[in-house]
Write a structure and sequence with these properties.
alpha+beta; Serine Threonine Protein Phosphatase 5, Tetratricopeptide repeat; Methylamine Dehydrogenase, Chain H; four-stranded antiparallel sheet; 6 helices; 19% helix; 35% strand; globular
Amino acid sequence: MKSVFFYLVYFLFFSVVGFSQSQKELYNQSLQAYKDKNFLQFLTITQKLDSMRPSHPTYTYNLAVAYALNNQKEAAVSTLEKMVLMNNEVAFETDDDFSGLQGFVGFNKVLQLKADFKKPVLSSEKVISLSEKELHPEGLLYLPKSKIWLASSIRKRKIVSFDVKTGQCKDWLKDNDMLAVFAMKADEKEKYLWVSSAAMPEMEGYTQDLEGSAELLKIDLKTKKIVKRFFLAGNHVFGDLAIAKNGTVYVSDSGEAVIYKIANDKMEVWLDLKKEAFNLQGLAFNDNQTRLFIADYLKGILVIPMENPNDRKWLTFPEGTTVKGIDGLVYYKSALLAVHNGVKPIRLVQYDLNGAQDQISSYKVLDHNRPEFDEPALATVVNGKLYFFSNSPWKAYYKNFVLDTTQFENPMLFQLKLE
């Protein structure tokens, strides 16, 4: 009983994806059914909520409770396993609602899974700490022709270059009209740098009138001048982007689950995924750019054939993995490297693809449950190594979005040698 109320109330206000009015009503109905001990109705409503928001921690936990209270042990255990893969800190074993599962073989396996998830996997290593503590980095890019490392800043609304040996930062581009800077990608000739940005309460100078605004910037790399802006107001967050060899740019919008395309300096909706996706994140082309992969924070990874985007499909994840919490996504040698930061513990996973690149054939956990990891986000591959910032201070802001610098360390750049 205690656990149900805690998770329902807590995640109602603090989950990544908010609740619509219809979900609030269903939530209240499910809570009432639980109080009335009408467990069959509690199960029916919770199943509906879970289908509306897959991998949502509240719904997943309560679905496990509902199955257990209806003596559907296999389903309860399966759902608990899903929960543990998303968050191994949930103390479900102390919840009286699962008392009927005590001694059940499947329940003991979930308990063992929870224990196993406390073990760290240490594959990457620290390279350097950046000199600018309050940067709050998100995107990371190396320009091989210019031999320059760039980092984007959520907090400071700018792009910095940094020395990979010393970590010393200096402003590369700072514009008073820039929003919080997310991803950065350059075309093959390094003529233009494309930058995704959005208005975030964590950025300096945020005002309410900027809420829901997002902008894609086209920057001349030689002059460091913004030559074109693609601005949208409403409910938008431009999180990541991918550039085709012909110069076409694709941008993910996590605010409205839409992928935009920019060709010949004109932006238009390429794919409207609002009916099938929830919170779009990382974008990555395969080597020959016949397929575009995009991560969804709740649903996993969508593979889109470029010749016929209507034939897109969601990848099926192997047992022992979760679709939840993928932010950064990088393609490398027929595999997808995924940064799961919406889970506990945070992990980096390599998902190997089959020959057709429309299914996951196997997986490998690259990093897992490391104390240095606190919201790694986007990543990039340079000379066979995966680079990323291990820590971003999302949790170090007060309620009024004042940054508490005592709660985090300087940005740490990590590298992981890929096989």
